[in-house]
Amino acid sequence: MSGLTRRGFTALSAAAVLAQRAALAQQGNRDAALVQRAIPGSGELLPAVGLGTAQVFDSNDDRTRDAATRVVRALLEGGGRLIDTSSVYGDAEQVLGQVMAAGGWRDKVFVATKLEAPDAAELERSLGRLATRRIDLLQLHNVSDPRQSLSRFKAWKTQGVCRYVGITSTYRGAYAALEAVLQREKPDFVQIDYSIDNREAEARILPLAADVQAGVLTALPFGRGRLFRAVRGKPVPDWAAGFATGWAAFFLKFLLGDPRVTAVIPGTSDAGHMAENLGAMRGRLPDADERRRMIEFVRSL
Length: 301
Prior knowledge:
The chain is of the alpha/beta class. 44% of the residues lie in helices and 14% in strands. Helix 5 links the parallel strand 5 (110-115) and strand 6. The radius of gyration is 18 Å and the shape is globular. It starts with a helix and ends with a helix.
């Protein structure tokens, strides 16, 4: 979801009030355990809400760097670690690298980036832009060939260039290729588009990821802004108040209610929205019956 779409929703639906409620709830539950998930292949715990950088950190200018600094600080102060970027997200890698270096934050951030191909030159460029010699998660972006090999990525992992390897797609038309590569190559992670109104991954990708012990990252958890537009001006239902203080938590906790999801990675350039998103890591998650009710509620909008 773009920053503009989220800001528009904020202005039109008085989300400032919701954000204040979320902030107060988070402050009041400062000692509550954060939702963390174990990476299946290693057992390493990862905070379950991260940050996506597509379309929000793509210009390397003072305004973007200042916003990125505030957002990354909010992520870290709120207990998050994961930041997902890509070699083709404009200047996002460079902005993130500069922000981490200036803040002394590299060791605190779980850096995930993506390459378009198993290309050593592209990898070197990403390492340089991120100002690091080691990536936490190196992903092959937008898998579309079912015969795609991850041998080069796995070699880089063996060499210590990255700690984990993964594959991604946010196009349902590419799911067959993604499934083939996931089954054969057994990467450490798979990243897919998944939201409460876009649930094909539940039937196709999540079961297979569990079978091959791959962590799951969910991009576009707000449905490219569709979900906020659908609930504009509406309060969170009373029956959801026990687990969701606002719409961001409602949508993100639906995803985290599935234990196969390792982390959600909504994108934002607003530190207040980052803090609001992180609220989904606190308090209880919806149970199976509540998740079914959430689906029906969204269908009725």
